[in-house]
Amino acid sequence: MAGEDERGAGSAAAAPAPDPAAGALLALNNVEVIYDEVILVLRGLSLHVGEGEVVALLGSNGAGKSTTLKAISGLLPSENGEITDGEIAYAGRRIDHLDAAGIVRLGICQVMEGRRVFEHLTVEENLRAGAYTRRGDGLLADDLELVFGYFPPLAGRRRADAGYLSGGEQQMLAMGRALIARPKLLMLDEPSLGLAPKLVAEIFGIIRRLNEELGTTILVVEQNARLALEIADRAYVMENGRIVLDGPAAELAQNPDVQEFYLGLTETGERKSYRDVKHYKRRKRWL
Amino acid sequence: MATFVQLTVTGLSNGAILALAALGFVLIYKSSSVINFAQGQFLLIGAYVVWALTVEAKLHWAVAVLGAVLVAIALGIVVERLILRPLVGQPIISVIMVTIGLSQVLGALVLIIWGTTPRAFPEFIPSSSVDLLGAQVGASRLWALGLVAVALVAFALFFTRSRHGIAMRAVADDQQAALAMGISVRRVFALAWALAGVSAVVGGVLLANLVGVSGEISGFGLLVFPVVILGGLDSVLGAVVGGALIGLLTAYTGGYVGGGLETVIPYVALVLILLVKPYGLFGQVRIERV
């Protein structure tokens, strides 16, 4: 299994230490998020991502995975949400009071769920919009080539309106648009959503390559737990706005609870029918 | 034939100026969904500031236009910041009422400063007449057409080539996704108002050059509504095509029918368009379920 290999980059943060979050690139500590001043979505969430790691955030619908990413990227105010408690630190400084633009400038970029390409802009204009924060570098041409290197289908469609791309091409564009900002931390929200299995495998392969070749730290939210655990170094499992389980991805993939709830396997390791999974769904809780 | 050519030139030149004014209106609507009823007063202020700077301050007209552009940018940003930003998230009717109020305040401000006497605009474009296909047409009208064309090309290049232009279109497309790219939506709103101010100065100056400097200019600004309804509230191309069509419609009606019908016909068109094609020729059709 691909997830089992130990890689040097992630080992520093993953090594057992008194405080695993110390020295991490990103650390969330007891973060509480409330929407519309009444709806409590994150209830004291803590997690950390070490430099160079690929970290997966798993959990069922409504657990608060997307909210976690939006809390980090500063997008909560646009949905009438706010961080009411706890802190978010990136590279040693607090970022929970910065606006979205300030956070992108620090090197954090989020690929939102559902691709969200600018449909009336061409592929190239989408990428140039992604490079908005990189004024003055004069490297735009090189960066475009970099993006087209990772996402070859986009190169042939530079002048096409993004709205006319296929789902897979749009996901590539959404990722390329984030990549061109040259983030240190790339956050991906459901990159497999609505894509054919072959494309999903391709996208996840590219995520892995971005991490290995560019050293980009990655935090990925994914419903497809099996795939996410295969490419991740570590993973967190969320339920009801809290982290309920965490550990190295290979270890989590062997955890009986994770196997039952997220991988749909029985104790003997066989695939279970969806009908049986449903019966057990609420039987067990971690908290 | 001569009448036809004359009316066409008149219609197109008026239409071009309308298109420019409508462009400012569309920019604001597209980026921030605000319907700016004060766009006509922006034209008025642009014309008066240029007049004051050339006639009263005796500056060269180019310097005066530049000065007026700066005033318009400042005005646009101040309006956005002090009046519209606190209204984000408020019901659309509040925002509409505020811009109507703003139009009255700006109109009154111009009256207080410069009075009601119409003024002649200093001649910076030759006002001689030119022979075109056997018809005598004012050179100033041809100049107006040319200058608007240049302004529109400049705007088009801005939107497709520059970083800020692309950012503006990105915000119009998907505000939250634009935020996630580090694009400052507030700055884009301010930029939209500033550009609306610039287009109003250019439009106002060209208009004042044709009809003189008076309160009538803001009345002409009201014609922006038939233009944007015809073209589509959120379409830049629609503003240009709508401007030309309304300009021609008004000129032909005035020339061939007359009797004051030309002042009503744009609004008749407005009502008809709302009945048969409510999103205009190029507007984005929004599907809303109730």
* Total domain count of chain B: 1
Rounded radius of gyration of chain A (Å) = 19 Å
How many independent structural domains of chain A? 2
Strand order of the largest sheet of chain B: 1-2
Description:
The complex is a heterodimer of chains A (287) and B (290). Chain A folds into two domains: 170 residues, P-loop containing nucleotide triphosphate hydrolases (Rossmann fold), CATH 3.40.50.300; 67 residues, no CATH class. Chain A is α/β, with parallel strands linked by helices. Chain A has twelve helices and ten strands. The N terminus of chain A is likely disordered. The longest helix of chain A is centred in the last third of the chain and has 18 residues. In chain A, strands 6-7-8-3-9-10 form a six-stranded mixed beta sheet, with helices on both faces. The longest helix of chain B is centred in the first third of the chain and has 31 residues. Chain B is built from twelve helices and two strands; from the N terminus they run ααααββαααααααα. In chain B, α1 packs across α10 and α2 packs parallel to α4. Chain B has a two-stranded antiparallel sheet with strand order 1-2. The mean pLDDT of chain B is 87. Chains A and B meet through α3 and α4 of A and α6 and α7 of B.
Quick rundown:
The complex is a heterodimer of chains A (287) and B (290). Chain A is of the alpha/beta class and 287 residues long. Chain A has helices at residues 8-14, 65-73, 100-106, 123-130, 140-150, 152-155, 167-179, 197-214, 225-231, 249-254, 256-263, 274-280, and strands spanning 26-35, 39-49, 54-59, 81-90, 93-94, 108-111, 185-189, 217-221, 234-239, 242-248.
